[in-house]
């Protein structure tokens, strides 16, 4: 796309990125491709290219030097994978982007935009990245401006203001003006200088084409009970369980002045595992799985082969097993059949409020909160009903035979 002049922006709605030349709205089907999984079961050649409009390489991580990025997420240098990914995307007429930051790669984001001098250097670093790898766009996955993420990020009360100033400067650059820009965000709008969510983020919509709301990890091992990883809705849940959802996140962003037509719904191809004693797992002694069951937080079930083992994070803090289970992992471990349905005799429940499923292994006493075709279809319908721009799926390699991708596409591209 061509970024219009700022003058034109004052008189026109921001619809450029969402429209094709014929004026028909084109929905965005986006996914993040995790570079470190390329040689671990999901290679560039495994991407179902015809089902995406853009693919975003994860990650270019920040480093102590504003002039330097690292492709070494999870200790695997993936620069060669990025080169392959862009080439394959372009062969397939799909846009290629790079996501900058990520959960483990945002340590220096705050510093990089922390002064006028650094913002200029950061714009140069990122436009060089675009030129060097022939990118169509950048995604800013700063987790999070004005809020601590992993534990050792630089954070400043000025982060969100500085981020906006950086975006402005990037758009003034001819390369920055010519690419798609998105931010991967929390369910709450950007944090203001007083530490709470801003009530007016409309200015961001002038510089960002899209905000991708990461509506996942809403419940996990840190929560008080089992709960939905990626709730579509929580307004229908008891007050104690209203921890966020696509419904409340879209409401928060649009009430803060961000246009719904520039929002992408982030959707997960993985779930979270919880250790739930059988006594808690079934509602009222029935054979129906309980919602919001109590779990044993001193047990940390392992997820699938892609799950992080216990160890130390990039801040040096001790970690337990992550318990992440990809959709393919649920099939591989026998929870689901090859068509993605609960296997015979495996306890399963679909929560009608969060519109997400839960499944249970009575032997290991592990309960998993995840997404399936039904929940992805519901999210796809929500995208259409709310007039959102499309979806962004974490991550390309988590699906099984494109069951999830097909389910959401069927609604979004109906
Ligand atoms: C991944 O695909 C690239 C080409 O896209 C190929 O060069 C590489 O050998 C593949 N790696 C694996 C592990 O299959
Ligand atoms: C990548 O990270 C791993 C572990 O974090 C480290 O051992 C390795 O030296 C790094 N490689 C590069 C090229 O930075
Ligand atoms: C600017 O970047 C440098 C290194 O890249 C960093 O040391 C410094 O703290 C940054 N300045 C601010 C104000 O964050
Ligand atoms: C935030 O920016 C203002 C100027 O815009 C500056 O006076 C203040 O020192 C900055 N605060 C921090 C924590 O960097
Ligand atoms: C703008 O983007 C188009 C398409 O990606 C590219 O062909 C063109 O060279 C770019 N222009 C500039 C100034 O970077
Ligand atoms: C923080 O700022 C927001 C506006 O961005 C305002 O609505 C809110 O009342 C402020 N909170 C405090 C505690 O000052
Ligand atoms: C939000 O901010 C923009 C400029 O940043 C301003 O034009 C608009 O009036 C503000 N909206 C509200 C509801 O205050
Ligand atoms: C969310 O729940 C509320 C309260 O039950 C309901 O009014 C609303 O229609 C629901 N929205 C969706 C998208 O499910
Ligand atoms: C369990 O019992 C309580 C009270 O008897 C009832 O409100 C609730 O709906 C029951 N739950 C299920 C899943 O049957
Ligand atoms: C939780 O698991 C630990 C370790 O297996 C066990 O010692 C403890 O008894 C369990 N607690 C409950 C309430 O089941
Ligand atoms: C439950 O776990 C047991 C022990 O690891 C395993 O043999 C069985 O296949 C699992 N069942 C399901 C449905 O995942
Ligand atoms: C969800 O709704 C369906 C159909 O209305 C119903 O059969 C099912 O019991 C409900 N599930 C739960 C967990 O309440």
Keywords:
8-stranded parallel β-barrel; binds 2-acetamido-2-deoxy-beta-D-glucopyranose; 414 residues; 5-stranded antiparallel sheet; alpha/beta; 11 helices; globular; 16 strands; 19% strand
| Helix-strand string | HEEEHEHHEHEHEHEEHEEEHEEEHEH
What small molecules does this complex bind? 2-acetamido-2-deoxy-beta-D-glucopyranose
Residues in helices, as a percent range: 10-25%
Globally, the shape reads globular
Mean pLDDT: 94
Reported for the largest beta sheet, the result is: 8 strands, parallel, barrel
**What is the number of strand segments?**
16
Separation of the first and last Cα atoms: 24 Å
Output the structural class: alpha/beta
Strand content: 15-25%
Catalytic activity: Random endo-hydrolysis of N-acetyl-beta-D-glucosaminide (1->4)-beta-linkages in chitin and chitodextrins
Keywords: Carbohydrate metabolism, Chitin degradation, Glycosidase, Hydrolase, Polysaccharide degradation, Signal
Protein name: Glycoside hydrolase
GO biological process, one term: polysaccharide catabolic process
């Amino acid at each position: 796309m061509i970024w219009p002049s700022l003058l034109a922006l004052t008189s026109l709605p921001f619809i450029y990125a969402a429209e094709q030349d014929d004026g028909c709205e084109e929905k965005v089907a986006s996914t993040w491709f995790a570079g470190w999984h390329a040689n671990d079961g999901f290679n560039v050649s495994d991407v179902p290219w015809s089902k995406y409009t853009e693919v975003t390489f994860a990650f270019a991580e920040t480093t102590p030097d504003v002039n330097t990025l690292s492709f070494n997420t999870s200790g695997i240098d993936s620069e060669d994978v990025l080169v392959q990914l862009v080439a394959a995307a372009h062969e397939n007429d799909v846009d290629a982007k790079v996501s900058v930051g990520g959960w483990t790669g945002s340590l220096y984001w705050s510093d990089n935009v922390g002064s006028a001098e650094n913002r200029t250097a950061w714009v140069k670093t990122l436009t060089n990245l675009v030129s060097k790898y022939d990118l169509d766009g950048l995604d800013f996955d700063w987790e999070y401006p004005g809020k601590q993420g992993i534990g050792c990020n630089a954070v400043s009360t000025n982060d969100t203001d500085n981020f906006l100033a950086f975006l402005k400067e990037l758009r003034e650059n001819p390369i920055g003006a010519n690419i798609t820009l998105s931010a991967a965000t929390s369910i709450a709008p950007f944090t203001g200088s007083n530490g709470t969510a801003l009530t007016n983020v409309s200015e961001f919509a002038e510089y960002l084409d899209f905000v991708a709301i990461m509506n996942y990890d809403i419940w996990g091992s840190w929560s008080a009970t089992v709960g939905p990883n990626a709730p579509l809705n929580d307004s229908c849940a008891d007050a104690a369980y209203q921890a966020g959802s696509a419904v409340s996140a879209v409401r928060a962003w649009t009430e803060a002045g961000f246009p719904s037509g520039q929002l992408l719904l982030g959707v997960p191809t993985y779930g979270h595992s919880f250790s739930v004693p059988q006594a808690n797992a079934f509602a009222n002694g029935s054979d129906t799985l309980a919602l919001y069951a109590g779990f044993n937080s001193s047990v940390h079930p392992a997820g699938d082969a892609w799950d992080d083992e216990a160890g130390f994070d990039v801040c040096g803090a001790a970690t337990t097993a992550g318990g992440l289970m990809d959709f393919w992992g649920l099939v591989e471990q026998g929870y689901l059949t090859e068509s993605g349905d609960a296997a015979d005799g495996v306890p399963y429940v679909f929560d009608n409020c969060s519109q997400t499923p839960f499944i249970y292994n009575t032997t290991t006493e592990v309960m998993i909160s995840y997404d399936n075709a039904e929940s992805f279809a519901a999210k796809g319908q929500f995208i259409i009903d709310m007039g959102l721009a499309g979806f962004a799926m974490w991550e390309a390699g988590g699906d099984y035979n494109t069951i999830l991708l097909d389910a959401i596409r069927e609604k979004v591209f109906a």
